[in-house]
Design goal:
The chain is of the alpha/beta class. The protein contains 12 helices and 6 strands. Strands 2-1-3-4-5-6 form a 6-stranded parallel beta sheet, sandwiched between helices.
């Protein structure tokens, strides 16, 4: 059966603002996701190779006043690390992640990784990750002019997709997940120009990776905080599928409460269907093999960063769900 991608749009929104330039970030995300899909769906991946317009980036890093893009040397090393992630994904196929009922310690032991050392190492990257994260989060919370600029790329990408008759999917990482949540909330409830005509429009999937949305401090910064918990005004009303991915040792997505905070109350309000439950899934304890790009400041430090987006984009279940979306198999 021919694969028709004419009504599909995958919108990608990154996290912390210390990023390669927009074209490089877009290319690396697109490459990682396409290669993930290629493991099980070669024909679909070949189709994506021929239709780069399916992918769009909602890049916001360059609106941050102190943003300095990564240099060429770093980008070259970053590509090597991304290739390593995909080499493991291809080699072990669906055994890339911890399976249902599988012991976490056994999974990592089979890969020659000491789980205690892995988790301790994750904490050694915490300061760098959290320093950047907290700086950008504070800016989002306290400077609404900058916050509007951060949201604008995703808002405009969604408008273009809906105007073109496409079914958008949002893939968001880290800080991009709560930017995305706020954007979806605004399209659900705002009656002002630029939003009202899209109140009934929907996104086919909202995919959150390494998300801090489980943290109540983050939720207190969002537009929804102004409305009573467990009311329909408290949540976006335009999501068909919402899947969350959290990797073991990721200090940003340490809260494992998406079912209690989001999915169950949204089901009760009929914003998500009670059946099938796979419309909302919280994948936790996942394996992220990304190794930190070595530079003069970190040569003697732990080399794994389980928060990095590329290890999330390589997750087998994420790849298979996106493939189902592209092949019109979501029900």
């Amino acid at each position: 059966m021919p694969i028709d991608l004419s009504n599909k749009k995958i919108i990608m929104i990154h996290g912390l603002a210390s990023k390669p330039p927009q074209n490089v970030t877009h290319q690396l995300w697109r490459q990682t996701l396409t290669e993930n899909i290629r493991v099980s769906h070669r024909q679909l991946a070949r189709k994506l190779d021929k239709h780069p317009e399916v992918f769009e980036s909602a890049y916001w890093a360059d609106v941050v006043p102190h943003h300095v893009p990564d240099d060429r040397g770093y980008i070259k090393k970053l590509q090597v690390q991304v290739d390593k992630v995909m080499a493991e994904r291809r080699a072990v196929k669906d055994r890339f992640h911890v399976g249902m009922g599988e012991k976490v310690s056994g999974f990592f032991k089979d890969r020659g990784i000491d789980l205690v050392k892995l988790l301790a190492g994750a904490l050694t990257v915490k300061d760098d990750v959290m320093t950047n994260f907290l700086r950008e989060t504070e800016l989002y919370d306290q400077d609404q002019y900058i916050a509007d600029l951060m949201r604008a790329p995703l808002e405009n990408a969604l408008r273009r997709a809906w105007d073109d008759g496409r079914e958008p999917v949002i893939i968001a990482h880290s800080m991009g997940t709560f930017i995305g949540y706020d954007v979806l909330w605004r399209f659900s409830h705002r009656k002002t120009a630029g939003f009202k005509i899209y109140n009934k429009k929907r996104v086919r999937m909202f995919i959150t990776m390494g998300s801090p949305l489980g943290d109540s401090t983050i939720r207190d910064m969002l537009f929804s905080k102004h409305h009573k918990p467990h009311s329909s005004r408290h949540f976006p009303t335009n999501i068909d599928f919402w899947h969350n991915y959290a990797c073991l040792g990721d200090v940003v997505s340490h809260q494992k409460n998406f079912d209690a905070v989001f999915y169950e109350p949204m089901r009760k309000l009929k914003l998500l269907p009670k059946r099938p439950k796979f419309r909302a899934i919280d994948y936790v304890g996942l394996h992220n093999p990304f190794e930190v790009v070595t530079h003069p400041g970190n040569r003697k430090r732990e080399k794994r960063n389980p928060h990095k987006s590329y290890g999330y984009l390589a997750q087998p279940r994420l790849g298979s769900w996106i493939a189902d979306y592209l092949l019109d198999r979501l029900r």
